[in-house]
Amino acid sequence: MYPTALTQLARANPFSAPLFTLQKVEEPKQSLHGQSHRRLAAASAAEGDSCEFGSQKYFILCGFGGILSCGTTHTAVVPLDLVKCRMQVDPEKYKSIGNGFAVTVREDGVRGLAKGWAPTFIGYSMQGLCKFGFYEVFKIVYSDLLGEENTYLWRTSLYLAASASAEFFADVALAPMEACKVRIQTQPGYANTLRECAPKMFGEEGLWAFYKGVVPLWMRQIPYTMMKFACFERTVELLYKYVVPKPRSECSKPEQLVVTFVAGYIAGVFCAIVSHPADSVVSVLNKEKGSTAVQVLKRLGPRGVWKGLIARIIMIGTLTALQWFIYDSVKVYFRLPRPPPPEMPESLKKKLGLTE
């Protein structure tokens, strides 16, 4: 048969060869019981790996890598996040990044810049566990559903779907601590610590206080994470294809981690831009009582939702690069399987006439 649909998809793929000569090939028959799993990489443990790709140990350690990468990095930039949130909710008082830092230090002292560090560390550690751990799970699940050839052809869509699915659950884990963090940072005098803030919020508004921002959090974080993972994965492909002068297999571990950091920073810049309007809504919503996301969005207007964008680009670009670097470093340290950038399967090459 002549696989015209596959040919059209492959021609539309910027990473494929520009021209194809179709060959008529016989497709081997497969029984349902004997059909092998098709994944982005082989499931068996390669020499030197501590576990199999897709094993329970693999997922647990990936989740641990997510805790380290998200919890530590978000906590490290709490001062910048605090100023960014205050610029979003009170732009008249906090006019710029420099002015925001100056006003905060003048009113609260240097220690005031660390407000909200506890809910930040706890919340984003839980988010990182779900974000990276579930991403690896969903990537394999969706790859098995698609099959080997479609996994390659539709790999960007697979990255987007897997990351969106993972972030849905990650935000449910993050929402309570995010609500506490924003309340501590943007309402001076409300509470100074998590132990003060959480009981006070629950006493005033009940459980709803911790989850009223989950929908705008999904609006912010799901596009952010889809961009974070898909852009990172494809940027890594581009860097190894056009920038790095040798194949990934010939690069040392430190060289591979440098590529990881660069790809992570590039992905982070795009992440900040696509998710910033929703981030502004979340910041205002968690500060105010009784407001809805639609009401806040109307009040901020088209210009108001972009307040604090430069601060967020700096913060998220650095964060994303460091997160990918830490996550990949955890994989290296525990000798987890790290599949190379995907290559076209041999069966697809035969269908497209790219092999003899």
From TrEMBL:
Protein name from the UniProt record: Solute carrier family 25 member 3
Organism from which the protein derives: Myripristis murdjan
GO cellular component: mitochondrial inner membrane
Membrane disposition: Multi-pass membrane protein
Gene: SLC25A3
Assembly, per entry: Interacts with PPIF; the interaction is impaired by CsA.
Gene3D superfamilies in the record: Mitochondrial carrier domain
Function statement: Inorganic ion transporter that transports phosphate or copper ions across the mitochondrial inner membrane into the matrix compartment. Mediates proton-coupled symport of phosphate ions necessary for mitochondrial oxidative phosphorylation of ADP to ATP. Transports copper ions probably in the form of anionic copper(I) complexes to maintain mitochondrial matrix copper pool and to supply copper for cytochrome C oxidase complex assembly. May also play a role in regulation of the mitochondrial permeability transition pore (mPTP).
Any one GO molecular-function label of the UniProt entry: phosphate transmembrane transporter activity
